[in-house]
Backbone:
């Protein structure tokens, strides 16, 4: 199979890849590392995203996602089909599969198409599939449970955890399903798929935040330790899931871990934030491997060449604030907002990164860095 590889020094007339995601920085950074020229459309156009891309633009937001007309217009202006080497989509399409279909018209799609995304994010189809494959999951209902205490309401096609809220007190609206709240460690598996089988890159410990929604994604740490037998079992089940669904490229599986038992929460059918934790430790960029997996090629050996424990954590605004004009961010910060940008309470400001010898050490450092950034912004703005 011919290997995909583009060099960053290609002429301006060369084709570029289009990245469309609510936040495109991690994909753009990985693409730059692999020598793939990209155009990025996301909600923020952070300073580092802009630096990694040949062109980038912030697209208007509609509720929690893309304004469809604005995204399609920007894509046609910056990366029209005839100049597009391929489309790579991150978060933001789980509840807008029709937008994914429109955006991919005339562009080679490297990732899961609208039909696969719909099947994975439709709870009736997805949890029925898990039952067929004997993959355990928390109990799910489609009508409001009575009593509602101990249940969660989850928006169909939701992503990032912001849509997850306690079911108590919520009126049925046809847009949510209900999942029993269970205890356990919040975990994820970052994996590649080629449409028939999977390749697990790593397991991660995740956590949520008290800012905004109590189940919003707040960060993760790589190389979570799992029992070897359990790892083999999860890999076997993921192979079955990929074979049935046709999943391709980089994906993620969120699950709860209790002892040596796991419960699947959801599949994210697109590159996830946790790719950030492994890219620097792979010989070749994960963006490049995403393209290769979509073409039917999986690694023959482990991609991660050095097992460094890495973590990242989201910094949220504690109150309404504006980024000071003279704000300087340390090198361990990513998703860097431009000066004078305003944030509402609970909104994500940026992301801090750390590495260390253990999960505990990395988490302590992340907490310190979250506090340091929040304090620095407050002091500069004073």
Residues:
């Amino acid at each position: 199979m011919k290997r995909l590889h583009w060099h960053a020094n290609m002429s301006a007339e060369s084709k570029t890849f289009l990245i469309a995601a609510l936040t495109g920085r991690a994909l753009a950074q990985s693409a730059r590392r692999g020598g793939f020229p990209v155009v990025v459309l996301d909600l923020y156009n952070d300073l580092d995203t802009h630096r990694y891309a040949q062109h980038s633009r912030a697209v208007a937001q509609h509720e929690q996602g893309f304004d469809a007309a604005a995204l399609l217009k920007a894509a046609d202006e910056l990366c029209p089909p005839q100049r597009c080497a391929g489309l790579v989509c991150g978060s933001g399409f789980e509840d807008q599969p029709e937008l994914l279909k429109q955006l991919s018209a005339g562009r080679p799609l490297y990732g899961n198409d609208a039909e696969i995304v719909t099947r994975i994010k439709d709870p009736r189809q997805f949890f029925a599939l898990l039952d067929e494959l004997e993959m355990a999951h928390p109990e799910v209902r489609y009508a409001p449970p009575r009593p509602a205490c101990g249940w969660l309401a989850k928006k169909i096609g939701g992503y990032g955890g912001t849509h997850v809220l306690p079911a108590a007190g919520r009126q049925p609206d046809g847009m949510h399903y209900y999942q029993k709240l269970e205890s356990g460690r919040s975990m994820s598996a970052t994996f590649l798929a080629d449409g028939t089988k999977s390749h697990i890159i790593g397991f991660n410990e995740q956590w949520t935040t008290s800012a905004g929604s109590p189940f919003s994604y707040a960060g993760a740490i790589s190389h979570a330790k799992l029992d070897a037998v359990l790892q083999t079992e999860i890999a076997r089940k993921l192979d079955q899931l990929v074979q049935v669904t046709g999943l391709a490229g980089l994906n993620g599986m969120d699950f709860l871990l209790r002892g040596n038992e796991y419960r699947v929460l959801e599949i994210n059918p697109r590159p996830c934030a946790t790719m950030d934790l492994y890219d620097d430790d792979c010989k070749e960029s994960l963006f490049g491997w995403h393209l290769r997996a979509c073409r039917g090629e999986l690694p023959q050996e482990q991609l991660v060449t050095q097992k460094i424990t890495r973590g990242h954590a989201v910094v949220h605004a504690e109150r309404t604030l504006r980024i000071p004009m003279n704000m300087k961010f340390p090198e361990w910060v990513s998703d860097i907002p431009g000066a004078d940008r305003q944030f509402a309470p609970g909104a994500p400001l940026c992301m801090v990164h750390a590495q260390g010898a253990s999960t505990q050490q990395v988490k302590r450092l992340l907490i310190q860095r979250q506090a340091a950034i929040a304090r620095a912004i407050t002091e500069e703005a004073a």
